[in-house]
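HUMAN:
Sorry, I am quite new to this. Are you able to go through these amino acid letters and fold codes? The numbers rather puzzle me.
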Amino acid sequence: MNVALWIVAGLLAIAYVAGGGFKLILPKEKIVGFGPSARWAEDFSAGSVKAIGAVEVLGGLGLILPAALGIAPVLVPLAALGLVVVMIGAAITRIRRREFGYLMADLVYLALAGFVAWGRFGPESFTG
């Protein structure tokens, strides 16, 4: 179980740091131009898109670094819980925009982040 949690957390960390990093670096107009899956950014200000990117980068780093460095590993499940909240917001945005085709990907990320939060708060906690 511990290995599965590390693998899922690692893959999520890569996805969130990369995706959030793009949101931080690129202007909103370029993000919207990536295609239909990124048109959600039309509903948000440029500052909000940057804030979402920052939260994703911090959440992605929080999935790995605290445990890997042995500094406050309790932050791992908290980071995962924060990413669950981000993905709930993403799912709500998809539903409001009627982008049901892209909703499934958001729900998968939500479930994976929820798995890490559950596993690190419970059976494979770093504090127990």
